[in-house]
């Protein structure tokens, strides 16, 4: 689901940018900022790059229920679907600094308009993705950003970090079945 969430976000964001600037070519790309040798991939040139920088599990318990009701009324024990927060770095990678700033502003506009992508707002959302929520990451100070870019092995570029929330990942493995309770007896055992 991580790949589907990123590709769907890229598709919707790319269409937004193409419409805004009347572009024909793809401008948004999901990719790493640098390859294993420390060089920026050629396909990143003059594109807006979306990269994962961190993943964490959402630990709010109401999301997690081990017993799932089946169509015949019994219950199946299975590992609960888990939800994750995917932290993405969006960095316009343009030779011209003013172009980078223009596309950074457009990035922020897109995520302000599209704080939530779900079936109500986006009919083309892939099966398995209920909704995606985006929240800008506040409090990333100068030193934290410097440390991030150093860890990535890339030169700093104007960028913004968003938390893409509630990406669901489920397993199909079943641990057991429980029968449906059909009658209740008031008899007390001796």
Compile the SSE list and pairings.
Elements: H1 2-21, E1 28-30, E2 47-57, E3 67-69, E4 75-78, E5 82-93, H2 97-113, E6 116-118, E7 131-136, H3 142-152, E8 160-169, E9 174-178
Parallel strand pairs: 1-2
Antiparallel strand pairs: 2-5, 3-4, 4-9, 5-8, 6-7, 7-8
Task: Outline the structure in words.
Helix content is 25%, strand content 30%. The protein is of the alpha+beta class and 190 residues long. The chain has one domain: STM4215-like (2-Layer Sandwich), CATH 3.30.2000. It has a six-stranded mixed sheet with strand order 1-2-5-8-7-6. It is elongated, with a radius of gyration of 22 Å. The model has no long low-confidence stretch (mean pLDDT 84).
The order of strands across the largest sheet is: 1-2-5-8-7-6
What is the CA-based Rg, rounded?
A: 22 Å
Question: Which H/E pattern describes the elements?
Answer: HEEEEEHEEHEE
CATH topology: STM4215-like
Tell me the number of helical segments per DSSP (H or I, 4 or more residues long).
Answer: 3
Which consecutive residue ranges, at least 5 long each, have pLDDT under 50?
Answer: none
Proportion of helical residues: 25-40%
Distance between the termini: 54 Å
What proportion of the residues form beta strands (DSSP E)?
A: 25-35%
Question: How confident overall, as mean pLDDT?
Answer: 84
């Amino acid at each position: 689901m991580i790949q589907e969430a990123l590709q769907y976000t890229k598709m919707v964001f790319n269409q937004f940018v193409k419409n805004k600037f009347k572009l024909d070519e793809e401008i948004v790309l999901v990719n790493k900022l640098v390859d294993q040798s420390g060089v920026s991939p050629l396909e990143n040139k003059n594109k807006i790059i979306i990269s994962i920088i961190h993943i964490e599990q959402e630990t709010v318990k109401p999301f997690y229920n081990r017993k799932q009701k089946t169509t015949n009324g019994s219950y199946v024990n299975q590992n609960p679907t888990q939800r994750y927060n995917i932290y993405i770095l969006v960095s316009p990678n343009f030779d011209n600094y003013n172009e980078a700033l223009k596309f950074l502003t457009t990035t922020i506009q897109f995520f302000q308009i599209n704080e939530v992508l779900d079936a109500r707002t986006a009919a083309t959302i892939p099966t398995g993705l209920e909704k995606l929520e985006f929240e800008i990451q506040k409090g990333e100070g100068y030193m934290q950003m410097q440390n991030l870019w150093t860890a990535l092995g890339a030169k700093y570029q104007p960028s913004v970090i968003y938390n893409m929330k509630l990406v669901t990942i489920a397993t199909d493995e079943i641990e057991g079945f429980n029968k449906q309770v059909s009658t209740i007896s008031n008899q007390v055992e001796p």
